[in-house]
Specification:
This protein is α/β, with parallel strands linked by helices. Helix 2 links the parallel strand 2 and strand 3.
Length: 225
Amino acid sequence: MKKAISVLSGGLDCTVATSVYAKDYEIHAITFNYGQKAFKRELKAAQEICKRMGFKHYVIDLPWLDDISTSSLNTDEDIPEIKEGELDNLKKSQETANSVWVPARNMVFTSIATSFAESISAEIIIVGWDAEEAATFPDNSKEFLNTFNELISTGSPKNIRIEAPAIDLNKEEIVKLGVEVGAPIELSYSCYAGRDKHCGICESCMRRKRAFKKLKIKDFTEYEI
């Protein structure tokens, strides 16, 4: 069977994206530890997803990224809270994005995934980049996807491409796609805070909650609020 690398944090977007290719590829999933508050909980989610779906799973530690990052995701800085009515306020969302930004995170992750793909002759790298987050995170955009694919084409002797099936989708559409492909959405973990239950008030939680609410689909996620 053809091989694929998945950049799998255990979150909603990457879980759905990876599930799109689960039947056609042997999935080798990578979870990165860069000192984020949510690592233990993300790891648990990723392990459960891989066990359910039969994916191979690897953990890569990046202590140096933890050392240089000033993001609220992996420092003592408080994670920003946001209200549902503010999710489409670009200024407010950009403030949140600036707080949780980790230096060149997706560049680093995707470069390592490319190295991994070369080493096992994988044909694709699966990522959960999506249109809703691209509004404030440039490394989730279609432009970033196309540019990185051009970079791989130029810099790698292997025929590898990045696949981002959610690149044009918002959270609501991602949940809908996940249901269609049988993704184990209920096992995914989206919270920035890293508590056992989703905090329910960080931007990632709020976008997840809103998607299920709009679709009127049962959300099995446990939220503190």
